[in-house]
Amino acid sequence: MNKTITASLALAIALMSAQSLAGPVSAMNEQGTAVPVAQERNFYDAYVKQFVHNDNGEIIGTTRETSLNQDWLKLVSERYSLTVDGQSVDAGAVLDGNYLLIPLRPVMEEMGYELTWNAENKSVEAVKGALWTSVELNKDQYNYAKIPIQLGKAPVIKENRMYVPLQFAGGVLKADVSLNEQGDITIQSRPDQIPEDSFGGMHWVIVVNGEGIGVPSEDVFTTEDDVMVPAEAIGKALGYTVENNKETGACEFVRGAKWIALKEGGTTAAVGKMNVELKTAPIVKDGKLYLPFSSLADVFNVKTGIDPTGVIGIQEEFSS
User: In angstroms, rounded to a whole number, what is the distance separating the alpha carbons of residues 319 and 297?
Assistant: First the structure.
């Protein structure tokens, strides 16, 4: 018996414990007789649901009721079948405990990300347009729109490649993930674009240092060139006091020794003794000053990200 047949039989046997997750489907033939229909099942949800989380979202174990057969998971990794955006990736998943791990660089590069390796802290930064994420070896902290997320499993190095949990593709990269009963893993990225403004149906959320700041969705809007965000609300969330200078007409932000001044229509922002060039001039709308999203990082010295669902993440890097 050849390897392909043996593997197929093993997959079928291993899947017997998972078959109850999806019932058989039948259809009528021309004679009116019910006949079985081949159905492609997606076991990814069952794979994710096997993990038990605590109140902080940390994975603390697995549940027997939804846990997939361990032998089947092992065979999935041995099948070496991983497709990203329609292209077969020359690197498969590996099994580590109950976790299926996927190779970080091949997957993200196929999705259009540019990756930079930092040898000092053994981390990877990945950028795709306005999207940004970072991954650090042996650290269960992943970033989604600059917001740290725990997946219950830290990145690991295997055969000189960094691997991350399969949940990284769906939970951090916001891709669609499927895992069929043959053991094929498919990752499909969603269209990446600057979201349309809230009047077009987008629900905006601004998150600063991991906390939503309660800015109404309509307080964010887009121009032809950028996404405009409320400067005062963001400044206050970052701990600045905000005042309008009646003499200069500028909006001033002060936090300790830090000082920033922004002015409607200005091409630069005063940041301490430096002038920072703005990609789009600030706008006043309904009595509020709006700053271009693309200049937030330079003006407030923060990391920023925006995802296709409208989550705007702003994160300071605190020194330890």
Answer: 17
